Amino acid sequence: MGENIFVTADGKNDNIYVYHQEPAEVVMANREDINSLNSLDEANLPGIYILIGDNRRYIGQAATSVISRLNQHHKNKDWWTNVIFFGREDSHLVKSQTDYLEKKLIDLFQQTTFDIDNSTQGNQSYIDKLSKAQADNLWSIVQEILLDVVNIDLFENENQIVDENTDQINCYVIKDNQGNEFSDSSMRSVFVKMVTNYYNSSYKDQLSKLIVSDKPTTINILGTKESISKSGYKLTKEISDGVYLYANFSKQDIIKKISYISDILGIKIICNF
Q: In this structure, what DSSP letter does residue 158 have?
């Protein structure tokens, strides 16, 4: 599928990886290799970049060259250790598209458990339908490369993985205005019970629209494949034959997802959390 190129410079073993799948290119690098990135062709093109450090993320854009922005962040942000950035091989990524993609990723990351370093929501410049479709296609290919080739889910937070047994504290209860009630000593378990009940009831058609033909994620919470972390922890629960729910959320994010489902189904859900 993608082409994996291991780049070295000046005789040093740099941790720089470049992946290509027309028209997209994705680069992964360590901060310590920033000098080598200066001479990398892909880093001297427009693109979107994600600074990575522990539980922190920053999403940025470069209208001319990614490396110019990374050099700035190398001086003014001391917390990041790695970077992932992407763009087009032909460099045909215009400002309206980088604005659109930057805002899109900021919105997506703000739905996760990561601490987002961005102080704004990104720019909202006008983008025509064709440019937007091209940008969405680029992002789709980038996600495909990261998930299928590199085995990285940008929105999965390994630091948030907690054994279910450590979540046994209180009795959590969810009620709705349809007379349903779900309770358990684990907040994640009661969340799974709620979604399972709704999916296997008259709300199935509405929830089925959320199912993606792949592993569910923190963003697309329903999918057709089981998701397991690199450390072997199951991140999903099967709520019906071949339908999996992403369940590895923090307590705060479970509340957000309950509100999200409430809006989709048009029912009032009350929690005692």
A: G
Phi, psi torsion values for 44, nearest 5 degrees: -100, 25
pTM of the model: 0.62
For the chain, how big is the Rg over CA atoms in Å?
21
Provide the pairing of β-strand 56-62 with 115-116. parallel
Q: Which residues contact 65 (CB under 8 A, 6 or more apart)?
A: 43, 44, 45, 46
Contact 51, 60 (CB under 8 A): yes
14 contact partners, CB below 8 Å, separation of at least 6: 7, 8, 29, 30, 33, 36
Mean pLDDT of the chain: 86
Residue 161's CB: how many other CB atoms inside 10 A? 14
Q: What pLDDT was estimated at residue 187?
A: 82
pLDDT digits (tens, 9 = 90+) for 80-137: 999 999 999 999 999 999 999 999 999 989 888 889 999 888 888 899 999 999 999 9
* pLDDT of res. 231: 55
- Name the residue type at position 93: L
The per-residue DSSP string of 167-223 comes to G-SS-EEEEETTS-EEEESSHHHHHHHHHHHHHTTTTHHHHHTTEESS---SSS-EE
Outline where the chain has alpha helix (H).
34-37, 66-76, 95-109, 129-144, 187-199, 204-208, 251-265
Count of Cβ atoms closer than 10 Å to residue 271 Cβ: 18
Domain limits, the chain: 3-149, 160-271
β-strands 56-62, 12-21 pairing? unpaired
Q: Both tokens of residue 205? A: 């058609």
